[in-house]
Amino acid sequence: MAVRVYRVIVRGRFVGLDDDARARLTADLDRHAGLPEGFTTAGTLTYDARLDFFTLRYEVRTTDDEDVEEVATARATEDLRRSGLPHGPLTIRATDMATVWDAQSGDLV
Fold first, then answer.
1. In sequence order, which residues have a C-beta less than 8 Å from that of residue 17 and are 6 or more positions away?
2. What's the rounded Cα separation, in Å, for the pair 74 and 63?
């Protein structure tokens, strides 16, 4: 089974944040505002002071028989649930890194 590496961007909107969640997000705003550090297996969360929309960035490794969008959706949903951050529908954009790099030269395609 081949392993594929994807960079996945998950976008969504906070919905029904309670006062505690708003306070936590506001307190952590400096760490999560602006451009994210990158794609990580644990996920990188970004949002701004409006506490409206958010972005999660993941590096997801899957096998040929796994659907990267399903894996990313499950991971994001669980991370947001565990953090106590209610949200609306998520949109997923996955990029297969094998399509970005030329295997022969290591150059961008």
1. 25, 51, 85, 86
2. 16
Query: Rounded CA gap, 51 and 23, in Å?
Result: 10
Is residue 90 within 8 Å of residue 72, measured between CB atoms? no
Q: At residue 103, what are phi and psi to the nearest 5 degrees? A: -60, -30
Rounded Cα gap, residues 72 and 92, in angstroms: 8
Query: Over the stretch 58-82, which tens digit does the pLDDT of each residue have?
Result: 999 998 778 999 999 999 999 999 9
Distance CA 60, CA 84 (A): 23
Of 2, 1, 3, 6, which is closest to residue 68 (Cα–Cα)? 6
Residues 93/12, Cβ–Cβ less than 8 Å:
no
User: Phi, psi (5° rounding) for residue 3?
Assistant: -100, 130
pLDDT at position 22 is 96
